[in-house]
Amino acid sequence: MSTVDWIGGLVVLGFVLVAVRMRGTRASGFAFTIWVAAFVSAAMFYPTAFRSWFGYELRGLIVPLIQIIMFGMGTQLTLGDFRRVLLMPKPVLIGIALQFSIMPFLGKGVAILFTSDPEVAAGMVLVGSAPGGVASNVMAYLAGGNVALSVTMTACSTLLAPLATPAMFSLLAGQYVDVPFVPMMITILNMIIVPVAGGLVVNWVLVRAAGAYPAMAAVPAAIMRALPVVSMVAICLIIAIITSLSRDALLAGRFVAAIIAAAAVHNGAGYLFGYWGARAAGLNESDARTVSIEVGMQNAGMASGLAISVLKSPMAALAPAVFGPWMNMSGAVLASWWASRPPEPSGMAGESGREPSVERTAASRRHGS
Known about the structure:
This protein has 17 helices and 2 strands. It is mainly alpha-helical. Strands 1-2 form a two-stranded antiparallel sheet. A hairpin with a 2-residue loop joins β1 and β2 (56-57). α3 (62-75) runs antiparallel to α10 and α8 (147-173) packs antiparallel against α9. The protein is globular. The relative contact order is 0.19.
């Protein structure tokens, strides 16, 4: 084993030990980011381990892994999450309008500012055109936001993604890459909507089975406890596979600093415009915090899957792979800062924002992207 291999092993082991040590502490919200760093380090030092197994190209696992993550999201949803649109139409509509207008154009803006590579630029626009990320729900809860609104916004933006994401990406990224609108729409339906719907059905079946057979009551709870771990592992594997495919470009230093800077600007501007856009529209503090987090945090996993499966471009997948961990880290920081400044109680935010079932939903998504 070479010196580089030994150094790589120590680096990966160091990240793993730090992540394990963070578990159960006040810094546990950052543990996921450290796990991502461990997998990224492993992919940089040992790229072949994440490129193929027994002759099978691991890039083929990216879409199935995303489907597993989205299935997990579906098991956390109920029809009540969609019925809440009727109870709070104004904040939901405002939030989704901001989501699919501000973020795609911000993606275009950072692409112009930070890179001249067309595929990397397309990846930045693709992240901006994605729906809200599932990790936003737990961040909204920690920030004192309206968790019911957060869950509803995530669900609704996800359902709109098959049309909204290809439309905005086609409009803003057509100069960078050929945009196959219909294949992208079909892929989103297959990768996102079908597993989410399957998860909804499984949730419905398990809840009713537990009610009819009390002996089975522990089964849904066990599944809910396992899903965050499964999602975390799936996300880490996706990022490691993408990193291994783009390793040479990363080592050349051509894109790393630019993509990190673009992630910081895109994400930070999303929080800022989301919050003040919501306040300008008359939403209360709790709802504005929720909209800010929903707008600022995108489903980077979906963007990665589209870059690999539809655009066939590991370089386009590089931006989502960097943006995802950054959003989780910044979301945890913002949520912690807002948690120390509780909003004034107000109507729906004070009531539905603390529903026990929704709290459970948010907590179970702690490791989503």
